[in-house]
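Researcher: Structure for this, please.
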Amino acid sequence: MRGVLLSWNAARVRAAEEPLLAAGVPLMDRAAFALHVVVARELQARRGRVGGSRVVVLAGAGNNGGDALHAGALLARRGVRVDALTTSGRVHDAGAAALRAAGGRLRGLA
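Model: Predicted structure, token format:
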């Protein structure tokens, strides 16, 4: 069986997201929630628990970094120790605030 590789550049992703964003669809909330669910399942499978685990988030300055920070906040609310490493001098403000409010920590790599 052959695998299929799919790839989209940033312009194509923006074009796909634009009608949803214009309609007020909370894409970041959905992405963050989905990511946190996948990580929580992996923690449960590997460690037998979610709470008490430790996760390191690698977050860039853009909206994908914001997705990761918001997912980290959701995990922190479930008792996960979350440390976010930021790769830029800029950080997604709302994501950083959500992570801090949930007890997560941010540290800059840049």
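Researcher: Any notable elements?
Model: The chain is about 55% helix and 15% strand. Helices lie at 10-22, 27-47, 63-77, 93-101.
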